[in-house]
């Protein structure tokens, strides 16, 4: 399981939705870079276009403007170039844990027993060995997210898109899963793009953080996190860690208040 | 179906190597004794009250008939109905066989037609626009009024009965399935699209499984029409079956009201049995659902 990561580059990406009551500019002029093996996060308030950006990178939606380059190439069909973990786990209720994890393999034509043979070591390696036969409804929220993540990892894609993987979890489970994610990612080696609402999560996991402001969704600042790896929970008490957190919080507030002025200045 | 499921499990056990240890989140297959007892108690609690109500109604009916000395040709008591029907079992037994064949084959045809309609409506947008209203409009046609025509077209054999049962029954199946196919989780569909799933794979892996509960809801409604539809078809023209049996009892001199009502009870029980079988198939077809 050592995939090389991909180089992802967004240049001036924009997305406009036309609706009945006028157009909505969901994202506008977004520049972003995630290099081979980097862990990059997008943080911003709800509705600032994070999921929209992900759908564009994943190839689910077409950008209204700008360029998306993967390893320097602009593909017209990006579906399958990255592995995508949607905001809600989207586990299939009618598949056991092991078959949910092996889903992408089966869709590529791998036989089910072969897909299971490949999913099993992954499940065992990352703490789900006991749950291979369980149905999704039997799992806790944290377990479901782990399954959804392994389902994303198994496809061996060089780019992982994780849309708020821990958004619906309680704080304790969330901290636990962040460490778990860190561990899996360090073994996988793929480039990761993560969407989050959570400041501490962004700092803990990322090499670089893009702060976004809403309406239209824009990148307002970029923060490099040069904290040593591997990161541990203990580091969260560290002054350097807290300093990055504080800076990020500051940038987020700035993004929000910029939006407030912008919204207030509207007729 | 259950054999299928078991092979699946066996293959999984093989792939996985070991049976996982018991854990609160991954219960070992098969209910624990405690669970079985709870399930049994629950079943008793759901079955007993309706049985008591039915028994009470039958008792009141018997009491009324006995006390008021009602003419048994007008309204026989349950006791007489049961005895007469039992005494006439050599005649009713083959009739049950014939009508059951019509009902079951008719349901099979209804499922085939219902699924074909639903999948075509779902797959092709222009068809959705034109076919769906036609199907809905077809339900405003009094199908009973069509029964004589269906007999004219297909004769007095098995075929017109099957056709009529299917005409009565396919609609709820189609509607259920159309709705079910449309109800698939868009997140799951998008996820599969990022895995480069094609339309057929989306249908098979996501939309069809998520449509199953709706499909079975439709099927359960349909199945309650099956026997009645078969009997209506027999009223119009047949040599054998429960409809013929009832017609014969009505035309007898003197009229055998007890046998007519006996046949009605038999039909009710048969319909319940068919319903229960569909419920069983439903559970086998969706082994992933929590046990009720
Ligand atoms: N299909 C669509 N049609 C019209 N508008 C849309 C569509 N999808 C998203 N939008 C709008 O685009 C904006 C960005 O939505 P998006 O889901 O990308 O936000 P988000 O940052 O992911 O929010 P959250 O954190 O709540 O998930 C919102 O204002 C939303 O209303
Ligand atoms: Mg979102």
Please give a structural write-up.
The complex is a heterodimer of chains A (267) and B (292). Chain A is of the alpha/beta class. Chain A has two domains: 8-82 and 157-264, P-loop containing nucleotide triphosphate hydrolases (Rossmann fold, 3-Layer(aba) Sandwich), CATH 3.40.50; 90-156. Chain A has helices at residues 50-58, 97-101, 103-107, 112-125, 141-153, 171-188, 199-205, 239-265, and strands spanning 8-19, 22-34, 39-43, 65-70, 83-85, 159-163, 191-196, 208-213, 218-224. In chain A, the strands form two sheets. Chain A has a six-stranded mixed beta sheet, with helices on both faces. A three-stranded antiparallel beta sheet of chain A has the order 2-1-4, with helices on one face. In chain A, strand 8 (208-213) and strand 9 (218-224) form a beta hairpin. In chain A, helix 5 (141-153) runs parallel beside helix 6. Chain A is globular. The termini of chain A are far apart. The mean pLDDT of chain A is 89. Chain B has 292 residues and is mainly α. Chain B has a domain at 88-285: Orthogonal Bundle (MetI-like fold). In chain B, 79% of the residues lie in helices and 0% in strands. Chain B contains eleven helices and no strands. Chain B has helices at residues 2-16, 33-67, 78-87, 89-123, 125-138, 143-154, 158-182, 186-194, 199-236, 242-251, 257-285. The model of chain B is unreliable at 1-35 (pLDDT under 50). The chains are: A alpha/beta (267), B mainly alpha (292). The A-B interface holds A 55, 58-60, 79-80, 82-84, 86-88, 90, 92-96, 98, 103-104, 107-108, 112-113, 116-117, 120, 129-140, 143, 155 and B 11-12, 14-17, 20-21, 23, 25-27, 29, 185, 187-188, 190-197, 201, 205-206, 209-210, 286, 288-290. Bound molecules: adenosine-5'-triphosphate and magnesium ion. Residues 50-51, 87, 163 of chain A line the site of magnesium ion. Adenosine-5'-triphosphate binds next to strand 1, strand 2 and helix 1 of chain A.
């Amino acid at each position: 399981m050592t995939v090389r990561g991909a180089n992802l580059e967004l240049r001036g990406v924009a997305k406009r939705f036309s609706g009945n009551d006028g157009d909505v500019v969901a994202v506008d002029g977004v520049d972003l870079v995630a290099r081979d093996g980097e862990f990059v996060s997008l943080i911003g308030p709800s509705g600032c276009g994070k999921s929209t950006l992900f759908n564009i990178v994943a190839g689910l939606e077409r950008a209204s403007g700008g360029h998306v380059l993967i390893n320097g190439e602009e593909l017209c069909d990006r579906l399958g170039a990255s592995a995508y973990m949607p905001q809600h786990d989207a586990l299939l209720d009618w598949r056991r844990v092991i078959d949910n994890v092996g889903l992408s393999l089966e869709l590529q034509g791998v036989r089910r027993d072969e897909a299971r043979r490949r999913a099993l070591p992954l499940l065992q390696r990352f703490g789900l060995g006991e749950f291979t036969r369980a149905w999704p409804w039997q799992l806790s929220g944290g377990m479901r997210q782990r399954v959804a993540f392994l389902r994303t990892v198994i496809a061996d894609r060089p780019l992982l898109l994780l849309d708020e993987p821990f958004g619906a979890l309680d704080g304790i489970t969330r901290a636990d899963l962040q460490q778990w994610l860190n561990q899996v990612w360090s073994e996988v080696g793929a480039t990761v793009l993560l969407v989050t609402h959570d400041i501490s999560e962004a700092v803990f996991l990322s090499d670089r953080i893009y702060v976004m402001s809403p309406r239209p969704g824009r990148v307002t600042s970029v923060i490099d996190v040069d904290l040593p790896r591997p990161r541990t929970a203990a580091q969260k008490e560290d002054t350097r860690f807290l300093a990055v957190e504080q800076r990020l919080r500051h940038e987020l507030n700035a993004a929000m208040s910029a939006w407030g002025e912008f919204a207030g200045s509207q007729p | 179906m259950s054999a299928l499921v078991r092979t699946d499990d066996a293959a999984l056990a093989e792939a996985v190597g070991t049976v996982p240890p018991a854990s609160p989140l991954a219960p070992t297959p098969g209910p624990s004794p405690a669970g079985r007892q709870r399930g049994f108690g629950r079943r008793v609690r759901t079955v007993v009250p309706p049985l008591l109500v039915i028994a009470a109604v039958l008792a009141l009916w018997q009491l009324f008939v006995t006390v008021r000395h009602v003419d048994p040709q007008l309204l026989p008591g349950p006791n007489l109905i049961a005895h007469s029907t039992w005494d006439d079992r050599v005649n009713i037994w083959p009739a049950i066989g014939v009508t059951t064949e019509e009902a079951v084959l008719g349901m099979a045809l209804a499922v085939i037609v219902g699924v074909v309609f639903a999948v075509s409506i779902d797959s092709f947008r222009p068809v959705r626009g034109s076919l769906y209203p036609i199907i809905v409009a077809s339900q405003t046609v009094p199908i009973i009024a069509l029964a004589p025509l269906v007999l004219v077209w297909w004769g007095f054999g098995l075929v017109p009965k099957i056709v009529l049962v299917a005409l009565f029954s396919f609609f709820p199946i189609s509607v259920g399935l159309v709705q079910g196919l449309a109800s698939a989780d868009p997140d799951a569909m998008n996820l599969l699209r990022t895995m480069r799933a094609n339309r057929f794979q989306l249908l098979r892996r996501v939309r069809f499984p998520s449509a199953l509960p709706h499909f079975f809801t439709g099927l359960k409604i349909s199945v309650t029409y099956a026997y009645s539809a078969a009997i209506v078809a027999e009223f119009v023209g047949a040599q054998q079956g429960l409809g013929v049996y009832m017609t014969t009892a009505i035309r007898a001199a003197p009229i055998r009201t007890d046998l007519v009502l006996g046949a009605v009870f038999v039909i009710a029980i048969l319909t319940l049995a068919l319903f229960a079988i569909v419920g069983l198939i439903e559970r086998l077809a969706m082994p992933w659902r929590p046990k009720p």
